[in-house]
Amino acid sequence: MFRKIALLVASAVTLVGVVSIPAAQASTTDVTVTALVKNHADNGASQNHWADDTFTRTMKIHDNGDGTYTTTVTDKGTFVTRKGAGSPNFGVPIVRSLPGTMTSTGSGTITGVLDPNYRDLDGVTYDDKLAGAKYPGSGAWALGFFKAGATGHPFSTTYEFVYKTIDETWDEKAAWDSQGNPNAGDITGKLSSKLVIGPCTATHTQVWKVSNVRGDRSRTFTWWTYYKGVKSSAHTSTVAAGSTVILHTAKSHTIGVRYWDGYGLSVRIWRHCA
After folding, report:
1. Segments making up each domain of the chain, as ranges
2. What is the dihedral of CA 146, 149, 150, 151, to 10 degrees?
3. Does domain 194-272 have CATH number 2.60.120.260?
4. Nearest alpha-carbon partner for 102 in 160, 37, 161
5. Which of 17, 102, 103, 115 is the most exposed place for a label (fewest CB within 10 A)?
6. How far apart are CA 127 and CA 244, in angstroms?
7. What is the pLDDT of residues 69-97, one digit of tens each?
8. Residue 253 class from Cβ within 10 Å (0-12 exposed, 13-18 middle, 19+ buried)?
9. CA distances, 44 to each of 86, 91, 162, 172, 185 (Å)
10. What is the reported pLDDT for 180?
């Protein structure tokens, strides 16, 4: 930790006395350190290894001037779920291996003395798949920048970890219960449904193709057409996962489709015919 002490010197042409001026309070320069962590097994609130993370961790260390340091930590990286493992929030089986992104923020307090050789540990790459290169854990890594005997944890005060796949989010905060908080969401490896409407073809009727391009199960949808501002009656069809259904309609300019994506969200899509 670097300290800069400002010294005020009083002088005059004729020195009539010496005035005692207290030294200015020491100011500090924050220290910032990083680590690259690869293939790190992640245990969620359900306390099982549900994903493998690769992320960059950045920690700012601020000297409070009283023998304690405030740490501010941020993470940014990616993860891959483990198929068959328990999900991070509720421990339900994860149905597939999926990639996602992860970020985190946190703060804590460490009591001790900063090691003047802290740079020796700064910028180190850890890889849990390599012998002798495993990440030691959040607490041990943070304390490694201090002299022996330091105590504390970089996430002791606040934290928030956010994990996202294309369809699911797990957002765990220190203020929430650590086990099965319904507000936190979950990562189960499922994909919500996504239907798309292909370009139409026109013969003596209009031909439309509706495909279920993403999702784990068949999806029933409601559809209708428009022609010169007149809306047809509603119809219902079903398209299997990874499949396409063909709809034949009377002459029309537009088709509309409404379906539920599997997570309780109503989705409407449209296609115009040239």
Report:
1. 29-184, 194-272
2. 150
3. no
4. 161
5. 17
6. 44
7. 999 999 999 999 999 999 999 999 999 99
8. middle
9. 9, 9, 11, 9, 12
10. 66
